[in-house]
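Hi R.,

Here's the chain you asked about this morning:
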Amino acid sequence: MRLTKPTLFTNMPVTCEDRDLPGDLFSQLMKSDPSTIKGAETLMLGEMLTLPQNFGNIFLGETFSCYISVHNDSSKVVKDILVKADLQTSSQRLSLSAASSTVTELKPECCIDDVIHHEVKEIGTHILVCAVSYTTQFGEKLYFRKFFKFQVLKPLDVKTKFYNAETDEVFLEAQIQNITTSPMFMEKPMDTRQYLYCLKPKPEYAEKAGVIKGVTVIGKLDIAPGYGDIRCLLEMISRTTVNLEGNPFDIRTMDLVLEMCNTRSVHWCGVSGRQLGKVGPSAYLSLPLKLLSSVQGLQSISGLRLTDTFLKRTYEYDDIAQVCVVCPFLNES
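And here is the predicted structure, written out as tokens:
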């Protein structure tokens, strides 16, 4: 079963006037219906939630989540149960099983549950293959598979244009259009957004401006769903300590790794690349960090990197704040 957000249950109220033949029969039935709102039974929208009845659409870049349950509906105990889930695409076969160990036994009316996640990176036909192997009481080894086919659709159409300025700057125009039949954080279907980026070469390449103007491929435009972003907030700045809060807006738990990159004037103190642990949906993590500045004056705090180990995506945080660094020792001479 695909894990998606539930929706409010809707019903179709049927009413009539009291002088009609059914009388108050319909009214009494709606009042006894648990899905209706007490005192407002004629409203279509109820208070109960319902899971989607179909697989729905999956778009490129979306995280596919699925709930797998193996239930023993027999009256016998089975042993050595192994559940595997693979995703077959047009170009590769991926293993999605979180648990690779064998379950010793499964009693009657008991089940084995697993939740898998995968960020789809290809369009076209995908086949989820669930395979289960087990051993009966008589030592017979059995095996069966289930196949679930779904399509991954392309949600956005992206067009880019380059403009070379008289200086060494390059302007990139990106036109993004929603080509689905439903809104995707845009005003309406088939809506279009245009973005303009100004790209400047690094100082070590500034002398080769003439060569850069002739380059047709200068990088990659990455478009990621907004619900997976991590917000980094600066809570307090003291002389040597910075407190940061990470807040993931996602429907899943994120396992984060923190990396600290030094700049020319600001040096982070501590171990870079350490595990921060798991952070649940809509939760936050308060983390004190220390830094050392080797230059006086107004310095920019930069160089923090948070990596989501599941999606292999790194979030960069630069220019978080500006700090005025002064020397604590006065030269009396």
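One quick note: The chain has two helices and 23 strands.

Cheers,
M.
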